[in-house]
Amino acid sequence: MPTRLTNFFLRTLREDPADAEVTSHKLLVRAGYIRRQAPGIFAWLPLGLRVKAKIERIVREEMTAAGAHEVHFPALLPREPYELTNRWTEYGDALFRLQDRKGADYLLAPTHEESFTLLVKDLYSSYKDLPLTIFQIQDKYRDEARPRAGLLRGREFTMKDAYSFDVSDEGLDASYQAQRDAYERIFTRLGLEYVIVQADAGAMGGSKSEEFLHPTPVGEDTFVRSAGGYAANVEAFTTVVPDPIPFDGLPAPVVVDSPNTPTIQTLVDLANAEVPRPDGRDWTAADTLKNVVLALTQLDGSRELVVVGVPGDREVEMKRVEVAFAPAEVEPATEAYFAKHPGLVKGYIGPWSEDGPVLGEESATGIRYLLDPRVVDGTEWITGANVDQKHVFGLVAGRDFVADGTVEASDVRDGDPAPDGSGPVEIARGMEIGHVFQLGRKYAEALGLKVLDENGKLATVTMGSYGIGVTRILAIIAELNNDEKGLVWPAAVAPFDVHVLATGKDQAAFDAAERIVAELEESGREVLYDDRPKLSPGVKFADAELIGVPKIVIAGRGVAEGVVELWDRASGDRVQLPIDGVVAALDAD
Amino acid sequence: MPTRLTNFFLRTLREDPADAEVTSHKLLVRAGYIRRQAPGIFAWLPLGLRVKAKIERIVREEMTAAGAHEVHFPALLPREPYELTNRWTEYGDALFRLQDRKGADYLLAPTHEESFTLLVKDLYSSYKDLPLTIFQIQDKYRDEARPRAGLLRGREFTMKDAYSFDVSDEGLDASYQAQRDAYERIFTRLGLEYVIVQADAGAMGGSKSEEFLHPTPVGEDTFVRSAGGYAANVEAFTTVVPDPIPFDGLPAPVVVDSPNTPTIQTLVDLANAEVPRPDGRDWTAADTLKNVVLALTQLDGSRELVVVGVPGDREVEMKRVEVAFAPAEVEPATEAYFAKHPGLVKGYIGPWSEDGPVLGEESATGIRYLLDPRVVDGTEWITGANVDQKHVFGLVAGRDFVADGTVEASDVRDGDPAPDGSGPVEIARGMEIGHVFQLGRKYAEALGLKVLDENGKLATVTMGSYGIGVTRILAIIAELNNDEKGLVWPAAVAPFDVHVLATGKDQAAFDAAERIVAELEESGREVLYDDRPKLSPGVKFADAELIGVPKIVIAGRGVAEGVVELWDRASGDRVQLPIDGVVAALDAD
C-alpha cells in the first residue's frame, strides 16, 4: 500500500526552527521528520521513524552477521551496579538520577556496561560459554550541559551498544576485530566515508580504542593522519621523543634581569643579545620553557596544583590535558591558588632557583611538575628564575632540574612526526560515527565477572564495548546529504524509494500516477504518493525537494503525450519517459 | 541462517526465580526470555525479544491497516504539559519524576495524551487535516506501589498507544470504531479470546470506554455479562433503579431499643418480632440500610467525610466506590474521624433522628450522604437511630430522610439485572488486554487544540485514546499457554517456527539435522537448532519443552533407519517421518 499524502501525518514548514543551529536539525524539522519536545529531546514523526528504522535494520543485520545476539535492557536502572564501577559519581551532572516512591536511587542509563556485565555473570560460568558478543539498539540518556545541534548531541538518543566477553586477550582481539569489521560494513552500506583513528583508552582503564570518524571540514572532532597510514584523534596522538643529549660541555645557567619581556619573542631577543650560545645557534621560541599552572579536582573532591612545562612555541591544549589527567577535572589555576602558594612567582615560574628546586614533589613547593616529552635530558631552556623580573638562560634538563614525569599537553601541528614513523601528520576534522573499545577487565573486576577457565580456575573475563549512535548517524547523514532545497537521502536509508507526484488539474495525470505507483509497488519499491488535489506543481516540487526521496516521478501535463518525468534528487537531472517505462528506467539505474 | 544453540545467548534454569508469583514470570525467566533488573524492571534476552518483536509486528500491521500513522515520543518529558492537564499531580506516586541539571522538572511518561495533543496542535490547524490517528510502540513507566506478577504489571513496560483526532463527535465514533475493529483483528491473530466490556469513562472526563478482557478464572479483573449480550467491568456496571413507591398509608417510623443485635440477622429478627409490617411481609436483610463512613482525600489534599448508604444484604465494594469518587482517594473512616464528629453514633448511624436530620449537607452534621440507587422514594428501611443501642424501623426514603445523591457503591452479584434489560448478569473474571477510550475534548481543551472548522470557526478537537500493553500481552499469552514442562507458544508469536534437535553421539543424526534445518529455512521457516554435542537427549527434550517452540523435530537414533520424529509441543503427539518429509508434513499441518 503506498503512502498517500492526502492521508499522512506530515506538515512541511517553510521556516527554519528558531532554536536550530545546524543544517540537519533545520531540515529534519522543516521536512517533518522530527519535532522538538524539550532541549535535546525529540519526537519522531512518520518520515523520521522510517529512516531510523532503515539505519537500525542495517546495523542489526551486520551485528547478527558478526555473530552478535540482540538483547534489550531497561533505560531505568538501579544505582548499585553503577556505584560499584564508580560511574554513579564519575558521570557527574550528565547522569539523570531519580528516586522511586520508596526513595531508592535510580538512573537513566547513559550506557550499559554494568548491566551487560552483570547479565553475563548471572547466566554464564564457564569458558565454554565464551566468546560472546551481545548488543542492543536502545534509547539512552545523557544530561548534556548544552544540548545543541539537534540530533547530533541529544539528551535522549538511540544507540547500538555491543559488548564482547572473552577469557583471553587473544579472544578479545578477535571479538574486537569482528566488531570493527562489522562497523566497516555498516558504514559502507550507509554510504559514510570513514577513517579509523586511534583514540585514547587510558582513562576508562582499557587497552585499545579506535574511533570511526567521517572526515569533513565541519566536523567537531580533530584528528591527525600521515600519508603513511597513521591516524589518531588529537587526544590519542603521542609525541615522538627525541634522544637525550649528553650534558658534557654545556655551560652553566645564567640568571638575567628581564624586566621588559612581555612576549616570548622579546625574551628570545634578550637571550640572543645577552647570553649567546657558545655554538652560535640562535635561541628560538622553541627553546623557552612555558610553565602552566593547572588546578586538578579529583573525583573525591580533593584538589591539587600541578605545573606543566611545554616548549614556548606550543600551546597547552586543554582537550589533551583533560584526557591526560582524567577522570580528574582540570582548569587553569586562578589567582586564589597563587595566593596560597607564595613560592610561585607569577610570570616568572620555573623549576629552578638559585636557592634550589622550585617545582616537583621533592622541591620546596612540593608541587607536582610534568614536562612535555620533548624536554629530554640535555636540552637547554630559557625559563623563569622564580624571582620577579628575572629569567634563567641555558637551564639544562636532567642536570639543573628534573620533573615528576611527562605529560601529553602540547597541541599537535601539521608536520609533527607520526609516532609510528610513517611521516609527518596533517590535522584534519571529522565527525565521530562509531567507537570500538577494548575495556579489558575493569568492569569484570569491579562487578566480579569470572568464569572457570580450561584449567578449572576462576578467570576474570575481558570485555570490549562497541557503540554506534543511531540517531546521531541519522543526523550526520542528513548533515552531509542536502542542498539549499532540502534533504537528499542516500537510497539505503531514504524514507521511501520513490516519490510520485501527480500535478495539474487533469484527472489523466492522477490516473497515470496511480498506475505508476502500483507498478512501483509491484516491483518491491516503497512509494510516497503525492495525490493531493488542488495544489500547484510548485508546492509539490518544493515538498519533494525538501523531503529528499532520491527518485521523483512527475505525472503532469506530459501524460497527454504519454510521458512522465523521472527526476533525480541528487543530480537534479530530469528525463522524460513513457508512462509504462518508469520501473524499467529505475531498474537500469 | 539458523540460530544454533552452540552459539546463542541462552541459559535455561531448572529452578523458579524466588521472587516470581505467577506462572508466566517463572517460565519466562527459567526458559531464558527475560531477566529481572529491579522490581518490575526486566531485561529482554534474545528469545524474549523475538516474541516481543512478533507481537509488535502484528500490532503495527493492524494499526497501519486501520489507517494509523506511526510516530515515536520520548519517554523523558517536561512537566509543563502534564501540569496543564493536572496529571503531574493526579498521577500521584505512580509518576516517576526527576530534575535535569538545571533543576527543570521532568517525568517518565506513563502515557502520552499530552504529547500527542500538543504535536497535533503544533502542526495542524484545519478540519481538512482530520481525521487523524497516530500511534507509537514505546516504553512507558509507572512507579507501581507493588510491582509484581512479572511482566503483567511492570514499572517499565512497552505499550502501543494510539490517539485519534476529530472535529465532530460522529468523527470520533468512526475513529473509535476503526481502532476497536483493529483490536478485534489483533487479538484474533494473537489467538487471544476476548470479551469487550463497558468500562468506566467518567473519571477521565471521557464519554465512552470499553475494555478488551480475556475471560479466564485466574484474571485479576471482574466483569459481568448477560446472556443477552451485556458486558461491563464491575466499576462500570450500573444498578437498575426500581420505580418509586407512593408514601400513602406507610406507617410512621418506630424507634426501638436494640441492645443485642450484633448482626444484621439479629436486627431483622428483632424487627419481625417487635415491628411487624402491616402487610405481613417479613423484614429481610435487604430492608436494612447500612451506613458506611468513608474519608475522601481530594487531589489538593483537602479531606471530607462522606456517608454511603447501601442495603444491608450488599457490601460496599471499594473498587466501585473508588471509581465513583475518583480522582479523590477513598478509605474507611478511622476512629480519629469519629472522634471529630460526635454527632455520629458509631454502630447506630442513620440519616434520621428524633431531633431531625443527621446526615446530608443540610443536616446537623453537614456530612454528605449518598445512597445506593436502590433506595428509591417510598422504600422502608431499618437503620440506626443515631442513638446508642437504638434503631429505627420503617424509615421511609423521601419522606423521613433525603440524601445528597446516589452512588454506585454496592457489590454486583450473579443475577442482578443488566441495565440494558438483557437479563440477569453473571460474574466472570478476565485479564485486561486492551482499552479503547473516547477522551472527548478534555485534553484538547486543557492544551488548546483547536482547528478551523468548515465554517471557518475555531473548534476544539475531540480525541480518542487506544492502548495495548505489548509486554503485558506477551505475559498473558505465556500465562495462558503452558504446561508443567514449560511454555507452549502459539505459532503466531513463537520465537521460532521449528526447534530441531540432534541427539545421540552418531554424526549421522547431526548431518541429518543440518539437512532438515537447511530445508526448513529454505521453506521460509525460522529455526532454532540444538546442535550441542555431548548432551543427553533428556536435557535437550527438557529445554525444548521449556522454551516452547510449537514444532520440534528430533533427529536421533532413527536416522539410521531414515526416520526422524516430529513432536507437537501443544498436543505432545510424536510422529515418525522420513528424513526428507519434514517440510511436507509441516506444510500439510
Explain the overall architecture.
Two copies of one chain form a homodimer. With 589 residues, chain A is of the alpha+beta class. Chain A has three domains: 48-75 and 110-237 and 427-478, 2-Layer Sandwich (BirA Bifunctional Protein, domain 2); 254-406, YbaK/aminoacyl-tRNA synthetase-associated domain (YbaK protein, Alpha-Beta Complex); 496-588, 3-Layer(aba) Sandwich (Rossmann fold). Helices cover 25% and strands 30% of the residues of chain A. The first copy, chain A, has 14 helices and 34 strands. In chain A, the strands form nine sheets. In chain A, strands 4, 8, 9, 10, 11, 12, 13, 24 and 27 form a nine-stranded mixed beta sheet that branches. A six-stranded mixed beta sheet of chain A has the order 1-31-30-32-33-34, with helices on both faces. A five-stranded mixed beta sheet of chain A has the order 17-15-16-20-23, covered by helices on one side. In chain A, a hairpin with a 5-residue loop joins strand 15 (289-297) and strand 16. In chain A, helix 2 (46-65) crosses helix 11. The longest helix of chain A has 21 residues, at 169-189. The model of chain A has no long low-confidence stretch (mean pLDDT 93). Chains A and B meet through strand 2, strand 3, helix 2, strand 4 and strand 5 of A and strand 2, strand 3, helix 2, strand 4 and strand 5 of B.
